[in-house]
Specification:
With about 80 residues, the chain is an alpha+beta fold. The chain has a single domain, classed as Translation Initiation Factor IF3. The chain has two helices and four strands, in the order βαβαββ. Strands 1-2-4-3 form a four-stranded mixed β-sheet, with helices on one face. It is globular.
C-alpha cells in the first residue's frame, strides 16, 4: 500500500493551502499520495483545479466535522 503523507493547511485562506500543497508535492516521489486537511471550503475547487493544471490526480475529497480534505496522487511529468 502506498504511504500517504499529510499536510495540515487548517486555518489558512486562499491562496495559502494551494501554495503549501504545491511545496509539499515538490518534496514527494512520483506516485505518492498526499492528504491535505483544510478549513477553507474554497480548496474543494482550488486544489482539484491546481491538480488538473499540473497533472496530479485527485483521489478523494470530502468533509469531516469542521474540516475539508483532499487526497491526491503525485504525478511528476
Amino acid at each position: 500500500m502506498t504511504e500517504r503523507a499529510q499536510l495540515d493547511a487548517r486555518r489558512l485562506l486562499c491562496p495559502m493551502p494551494v501554495i503549501k500543497t504545491q511545496n509539499r508535492v515538490a518534496e514527494l516521489e512520483n506516485g505518492a499520495e498526499l492528504e491535505v486537511i483544510c478549513t477553507d471550503p474554497g480548496v474543494l475547487h482550488d486544489i482539484p483545479a491546481w491538480c488538473r493544471v499540473n497533472g496530479h490526480e485527485v483521489l478523494e475529497t470530502g468533509r469531516r466535522e469542521n474540516e475539508i480534505f483532499v487526497v491526491l496522487r503525485v504525478s511528476h511529468s
